[in-house]
Design goal:
Largest sheet: 6 strands, antiparallel
Helix content: 40-55%
Strand order of the largest sheet: 14-16-15-18-19-17
Shape: globular
Structural class: alpha+beta
Distance between the termini: 91 Å
């Protein structure tokens, strides 16, 4: 069992018991097989016994309070790529020795052999090893940084099918990447990254079935695109009902189907019942040995059960043991009654009969974060998008009343969405002119005030009104206090349900903008972190109050708590630096206390919808217990016995993993310092398929600035900077359209084109001769314009005499000698145009 440090209050009791305890601190290797596992499960682990006795010893002194937690950070180190890690005694890296652990995947010849073999069918121009592309493509929205040794842009399922067994043969770990909007570190690697996004039309096929209640999509499609496809299908065919996919994450206009399936994403309105697990009908999966399973094809299923009998029998055996264990079955059902993406989708083991292993495997794939296989196609049962909607923003004088109201609405109504805001969130409302116009009482709200944003929907206007009446009756019966100020109580009727989408959109735009508001206002040099927790709704008030107090105690003054109240799901948004040991220590201590509050005290989920990743991998056992945790390891070994597919994600033996490879955000330019690297901008970028996206331009610029300002750079760092600087000229500057389209989707409204223009301006200032020439040309543009046709005619004349090869050679030499000021000749260069005739009067 992963050794999580105990609260300082329990340390004395722990030390007394630990002094007489046998065995080493390191967890033993996973035992596979039913008999071994059963024997292991009959007795609680040593640490469980220790914790139980220590808890009992401490109960008399502190029964209801939260323990003070501390994880000593001995030291920190910064790697070649700027990532910061807490250091422990196991972090020794032997040059040239490969170990399948983050930071220890050294080249021992396996990567060269892998590259050579895939080059037989993957062109070299889709394989990237240079410092700019690997750093840029290796960046995702999480606060973890691992730099891939090789990035491969894959174009179709067949390429994945051929690459996977080669990776398995050579022992080369591979990680799949779609949009890179994941937040928990599940889509980064220091091995090989297989990138399916920004590859033109590849992985973007779809088929709408019938009336739109079913749609088949590939993993490179953006979620919002799929909904627009469905909306257009309903419009063109004049259908009575418009459909959409169930999951609706706030990143739906940027995140891709690959990530939505792999993370079992949900969102503000879909709850649990409409997430991918509950709405996916079929999928195509590529396994590590290259086998493709199409769950919609009976022949494929029959063949798979024969060729992969060991996997199917193993999954059925685990499911049988789980279903015969009433306590474990109850735990699983309770855990997945609320949002939960911590660990694997164990509900698949209890939701389906033992005689249908394909259905179990299909649902285990959902939320497995690319650690079981690659989902190359998904067919969704879509859900109706009702046209009639209304939203109300209801205020409460304290958090507990708001949370109790959410519980009432969950139990007594069919309300569609309920979003919760704490006082810190409401403080941002006070600065929003449209919010204060609709809700003037927000100004000066009580210190612990909170609010619920409620949405009701209906197929008809009458059905919508019934939903609204139901909500209002339930809140009135609850007799909970309403109003932003306790001294000025309100009635439920005082809060209007806005049917006009112009007004309702104000509320929802504010909700979607909360994360970037916090991110944009953070201190320069810090990162924006988003934790994602959940608990039973009847415990939501207690958990939220504890978390608010926790942030206060650790000095996170900008922290906000808000989220999907109907599912007991909270998003915790705050800024965090990783610039020194003290900041890493604070982060480590806060994480321990947060996990205690959520998992231990409130029986909640440490990840509600963002996936486990690396962020919560060390805490999976804390939440689930040893029995369920070891079952997860069994599943991983069944699907991926060689640990080839995204190893270290979801499950990891390193208890300090969450404190390693932390991505820093060094201040580099006021233009882009607010960037939170979410990736929302990428789909708007004209050069996304050619070179870099705005996010990637910014992250590479930050890294170049860091390297260039190091006080004592090593020769390796100097060389890396020069290589990045040279490659950035084309990748970052020359291919940027500077059209500002990125700003339209950027949540903090950064125009990366402004950065590119600033860099170009700085370059021109430093190049005196070039600047002088450019200025002269601008001031004498009429002369230049009249001379261009003559130059083109002269070039055409020499082409007719010399031919293409000499002209190509001469122009190439002139291009180099002039530092690329004189362009190279090409056969498409036109002749000079004739002067324009004056217009007729």
């Amino acid at each position: 069992m992963v050794r999580r440090k105990l609260p300082s209050l329990l340390r004395g009791a722990y030390n007394v018991i630990q002094a007489n305890a046998p065995g080493a601190q390191q967890r033993a290797p996973v035992q596979l097989g039913a008999a071994a596992l059963q024997q292991h499960q009959q007795q609680p682990s040593h640490l469980e016994q220790v914790r139980g006795k220590a808890q009992a010893a401490a109960t008399a002194t502190r029964s209801q309070s939260i323990p003070t937690l501390s994880i000593p950070v001995a030291d920190i180190k910064t790697d070649l790529y700027g990532a910061v890690s807490a250091v422990n005694e196991n972090d020794v890296v032997q040059e040239g020795v490969f170990e399948n652990v983050d930071g220890k995947r050294q080249e021992d010849g396996r990567y060269a052999r892998f590259t050579e073999e895939i080059s037989a069918f993957i062109p070299k121009d889709r394989q990237y090893t240079d410092p700019v592309r690997t750093f840029a493509y290796g960046t995702d929205a999480s606060f973890y940084r691992l730099n891939p040794k090789l990035v491969v842009k894959v174009h179709n399922e067949e390429e994945i099918r051929r690459i996977a067994p080669i990776a398995k043969k050579h022992g080369v770990p591979i990680t799949f990447r779609a949009a890179g909007t994941s937040l928990s570190g599940q889509a980064v690697t220091d091995s090989v990254l297989l990138k399916l996004s920004h590859t033109g039309k590849n992985f973007r096929n779809y088929k709408v079935h019938g009336d739109g209640s079913l749609i088949t999509v590939e993993p490179g499609l953006i979620g919002g695109e799929v909904n627009r496809i469905l909306a257009n299908h309903a419009k063109v065919n004049k259908l009575p009902i418009q459909y959409k996919i169930g999951p609706d994450p706030s990143s739906i206009d940027s995140s891709m189907i690959g990530g939505i399936v792999s993370n079992n994403s949900s969102g503000m309105c879909c709850g649990v019942s409409q997430n991918t697990y509950h709405t996916l009908k079929d999928m195509r999966v590529v396994f590590v040995d290259g086998t493709v399973l199409d769950t919609a094809d009976p022949k494929s299923c029959e063949s798979f059960m024969q060729t992969h009998k060991e996997l199917c029998d193993g999954v059925v055996d685990i499911a049988r043991r789980v279903q015969s264990d009433q306590q474990l079955t109850s735990l699983i059902r309770r855990k997945f009654a609320i949002k939960c993406t911590t660990g694997y989708s164990l509900n698949a083991l209890v939701d389906f009969p033992l005689d249908n292993p394909i259905e179990i495997i299909k649902h285990l794939m959902i939320g497995s974060e690319g650690t079981f296989g690659f989902v190359s196609q998904a067919t969704y049962n879509t859900v109706p998008e009702w046209p009639h909607k209304a939203s109300a923003f209801i205020l409460f004088p304290d958090v507990r009343a708001a949370c109790e109201a959410a519980s009432v609405l969950r139990n007594e109504t069919a309300v569609d969405a309920v979003e919760l805001f704490d006082r810190a969130s409401l403080r941002e409302c006070e600065a929003d002119e449209n919010m204060t116009r609709l809700m003037p009482e927000i100004t000066g709200a009580d210190p612990m005030a909170a609010s619920l944003l409620i949405e009701c929907r209906g197929q008809t206007d009458e059905a919508l009104q019934e939903r609204i009446d139901e909500v209002q009756r339930s809140l009135a019966r609850s007799k909970l206090p309403l109003g932003a100020k306790a001294k000025d109580p309100k009635m439920v009727e005082d809060y209007k349900f806005y049917r006009d989408m112009k007004d309702a959109k104000v509320f929802w735009d504010f909700r979607k903008g909360l994360i970037p508001i916090v991110g944009g206002a953070r201190e320069r040099g810090t990162s924006m972190l988003i934790e994602d927790v959940a608990c039973p709704v009847d415990k939501l008030g207690d958990m939220m109050i504890d978390l608010i107090e926790m942030f206060k105690n650790y000095g996170y003054d900008d922290a906000s708590c808000f989220g999907h109240a109907l599912e007991g799901n909270l998003h915790l948004v705050f800024s965090q630096g990783f610039r020194n040991k003290a900041e890493v220590q604070r982060f480590a201590d806060m994480m321990e206390e947060m996990c205690y509050i959520v998992a231990t005290k409130n029986s909640g989920s440490l990840k509600g919808e963002h996936g486990t990743g690396r962020n919560m991998a060390p805490f999976v056992e804390m939440e689930w217990g040893t029995k369920a945790y070891e079952l997860m390891w069994e599943l991983k070994h069944l699907f991926d016995p060689t640990m080839t597919i995204n190893p270290g994600v979801v499950l990891n033996r390193d208890p300090d993993l969450h404190m390693k490879n932390l991505k820093t955000a060094p201040a580099a330019s006021p233009i882009v310092d607010r960037c939170i690297e979410c990736g929302f901008c990428e789909s708007n970028c004209p050069s996304k398929d050619l070179s870099l996206t705005p996010r990637q331009r910014i992250t590479v610029f930050r890294e170049m600035h860091r390297l260039n300002t190091l006080p004592n750079p090593s020769p390796v760092e100097k060389e890396r900077y020069q290589q990045m600087k040279e490659a950035y000229e084309y990748d970052g500057l020359d291919t940027c359209a500077a059209d500002g389209m990125c700003q339209e989707k950027c949540p903090v409204k950064i125009n990366t084109g402004d950065l590119v223009k600033q860099i170009r301006s700085d370059q021109m200032t430093s190049e005196g001769r070039a600047s002088a020439v450019a200025t002269w040309m601008a001031n004498h543009f009429n002369v230049i314009n009249s001379g261009v046709p003559r130059v083109l005619d002269t070039i055409s004349f020499f082409h007719s005499i010399l031919g293409p090869k000499p002209l190509q050679f001469i122009s190439s030499w002139l291009n180099k000698m002039s530092n690329h000021m004189i362009p190279e000749w090409n056969p498409y260069l036109p002749k000079g145009a004739s002067p324009l005739k004056p217009p007729c009067r």
